[in-house]
Amino acid sequence: MLIILQLILFIVAAPFLSGLISKVKNNIRMRKGQSVLQPYYNLAKLFLKREVVSETASWIFKATPFVVLAAMLVAAVLIPVFILRSPLNHAGDFLALIFIFSLGRFFLVLSALDTGSSFGGMGGSREMFISSLLEPALCMAVFAVSLQFGSTDILAFSGMHAISVSSVVAALTLFLVAIAETSRIPVDNQETHLELTMIHEAMVLEYSGRSLALIELSSHIKQMILFFLIAQIIFPIGLPACLVGGSFCTSFMQIFLWVLWYLLRIIIIAIAVALVEISVAKMRLFRAADFLGLAFVLGVIASVCAILGV
Amino acid sequence: MSDFLPKQFFQFDPLSLFFLFVIFIVSLPSAIYSFSYLKGEYSPAKIRLSWFLLTIFVFSMALVVSVNNALVFLVFWEIMSLASYFLVVFDTDHEKSIQAGMIYIVMTHIGTAFLIAALMLMYKHANSFDFSAIKSACQVMPGKTKNIIFLLLLAGFGTKAGIVPLHIWLPYAHPQAPSHISSIMSGVMIKTALYGIIRFVIYILGVQAYWWGILLLILAGITCLVGIIYALMVRDIKRLLAYSSVENIGIILLGIGMAMLFQSINMPYLAVFSLIAGLYHLVNHAIFKGLLFLGAGSVYKACGTRDMEKLGGLIKNMPQTAVCFLIGAMAISALPPFNGFVSEWLILQAFFLGAVNATGGIKVFLVICAAVLALTSGLAAACFVKAFGITFLALPRSRYAEEAREVPLMMRMSMFFLSLLVIVFGLACVKIIKILVQVAGSVMSVDISSMHFSLNNFVLSPQSGKNIYFSTPLLGLMLLVLGLAGFVVYRLFGKNKAVIYKTWDCGYYKIGPRNEYTATAFSKPFRIAFGFFLLPYRKTQKIRESFYHVKSFVYETHTTPVFKLYIYEPLLELVFKVAKSVRRMQLGSIHLYLGYIFITIVLLIVFIQKF
Amino acid sequence: MYGIILFTVLVSTYLMVIAKRMPALIRGFRYQSFCLFVFTWVIASGHRQPDLFVVAGLLFVLKVSLIPYLLYQIIKKIRVSEDLGLFINPQLSLVWALVFTYLSWVFSVSLLISHETVLTSMLAIAFFIVLAGLFLMITRMSALAQIIGLLVMENGLFLLASTVSGGMPFFVEIAIFFDVFVSVVIMGLFVHRINKLFTHIDVNKLSRLKG
Fold it and tell me: Where in chain B are the domains?
């Protein structure tokens, strides 16, 4: 039951994070900015709008939103949030998560190529470029965390109770990965719609209406998953005893506070992302390779630290 | 000559059976495929010839993996090489085939020369060609000899397998053969070299020093990356697949190399586990590479070209081929829940377990290897997005692609069968691993009953202490259910139908195939990022009508074939130089030739006197 | 007895080495073959082996009469200069021949365990004849000299076989004789063709054919 709750939490709360980041950014720029709830409005609007599909598109284009959404939802189900071990997260482990992400990306790029638009091709090519360089960094971060735990079980990042050098560096790696994965400055820019600079937005340029809504929702969910992972690593807290043991909780307040802290951590990460985004300039595409190289090196350092046990 | 009785030639231990399975599971659909594929391409006499060669080829491969005598092994190995050579040059109309065949046969014979040297060294110690005799002789062999034999075997089998920098023949030979042959060559033939490595190095020779494993892992890592980077660059779809075979051989060797490493540092559990991972990827690669080559062959049959820049939009004309190719591409990009995902996960897991359980610097080394594998799989995904996206999606880029028709049923049946296998091998991983445990155990001569691969029906956890849960059926089911849920929501929300309209073209209404992104353009970021290795260069030429008006613009971009330029060409030059100086001896005079003989005899007499 | 015959074989070989003209060479070959015939005959009568008599007879028929006759015929037919065309002049050739004799002596001494003089010298001479045949082939330009060189080598081998193993099996011997005969006929034809095509039989000029 809790797993459904977790799924719903991810679906419902994910757009909020994007709204929050945008709000923070705008406020720092001394602007009023859009409402925090703007992503919800966007989704609602898109769901109600009529959809336009390119005449050159094939079934890949139509199927992609569902594949991407399914991949992200599976990832959301896989990670333990409220419950340590559900039957559903027997499906995979931490390493599998990397491949699940890449499933969504694979289809997204195919759909970008499907319409025959050069924007799509450009976006797809760049997305694949960045994500393929991202993969080793992500893998190293996963390794670093798992090495501390001793197995690549999905529980690895929930099993930590103290911060170590390794976990800080791993969190930093994941942070850089998350910036690139969620197409934020300095790698990509979600706000621009100038064709030559955008990556993710160029890929989904041909989507509209409900399909676009699903894809946007998937991106929000992916973002939240990544933030959650970072939060778990850098602010490790366990589950309250009542949720683990199954016994009834004595105090409702206790649970409420725990949930509050649980979610607050994610928000802290989101604000950090917003601060990074506001304080650096977007890089040229090929500088992004250096950025990801940095992420990879950090990941290796994290792994080595984990091996050394610090 | 009592040991030349035929019944003693064969042995069917689990390893041989496994490889026989791999050989036949790819060869059969390829053979069925060739019924329709060859029809209309060649004359009936030539088709009969191709069947004859195919039969010899497949059976020689089967015999290579099932004999237990080194001499007989070599004989069948040569038959296999020759049969495949004739199949490579089968398309005699093309100049390229002859050239490819030449490169192939030269390289493969250099490899065989190394093998002969290694086997002779073994024979010298064992005084017998029998595997079991050699094996027992290897127990008492001095370490230095073992090292030499290992290096010789590595070079010999490495040439066949396509380990960088010995891979040079692979991207020439594989695309030139007819597609069903490419599928067998890429899917199976290069695996016989891996069989050789497993059989001779792990089973017979026994891993002696841990640097063997390290060396193999380093080579495998380089092979992975070089293979996939080149695969990204090419635009010939079959060459792309051939380079990707180089990459996958690297991945398999990562598993095998790790098994050797763990065996030498006395960690039998992990050794068995890594070998399982390697073997799993081996059979997977056979299946999906076979599938992809058949798919590429169908494209070639339908369009008459293998150049991706001339294809496109085939998903509309050839929907079934497209689906099969997509499944293959997804599997090779290690996407869940297909088989490539399982095996790459297993290899990564093996790296991880090694990094947890090994000691010292090996830990860090394994972590770096894992990163290499991760990078490879990322690049592989990019490569196959390109392969599928450019070939099958968007608008057709030429008349051939526009007029393509779906291929005959028999060809599609073969592809369906292999696609099915891709899915089965993805979902039934638990059962398959159970079988592979037997194979790996028998190779390593390790008692596997004491090892705990706690496998229940759907869930696999390779390490008993700390559970790792992994289940592709569950993952597949979840993907399906959640995807369907998304679809239902999508349906519920709006009943209005989608409008079909033109792709956005900035309002010019002139979008056509010329606007599309090409394969070369798609791989450009990679070309620049890996520029230090690919050394790309370009030529531009403006044709002007006047100073202000450029009439046309020619743009060419190439990458420098580093291995060819810096390793093989200097080598060839050296050979030619030596040959030229030797030619000075060849004056065409009979007297001189006789004189050479005479001088040799005299020298030999003097030699006998002296020593 | 053996010694004297062997010495004549040796001398006849030296004669061939210093021969300047074709008939002289053929004559030398005839002497050599005749000595061999005598040698075989003596062995045959000593051992009372009917096989060896037949071999000796064949030797006489083929090598002493038929082959030299054929060679003379060829010379007549092609009507070229009877000059052999020497790369190395006779005197120097003789010096070389002596060096080879010494070498083969040393060789046969090292080869044999028992230092029986007759056997050793037999082996040495046999080996020397093989070398001399090869030497003739190398240093004479004419194609006919090559044929004769080959025949000389064959003689040497015959001697070698009869010294080392007491003669080859009968049928092998017969077959070799037949082979040699046929090869002479074929090479004769060949020389004839060369002569027709190039109006000379100087093998040295064949090098112009190479690419």
Answer: 7-206, 209-502, 562-610
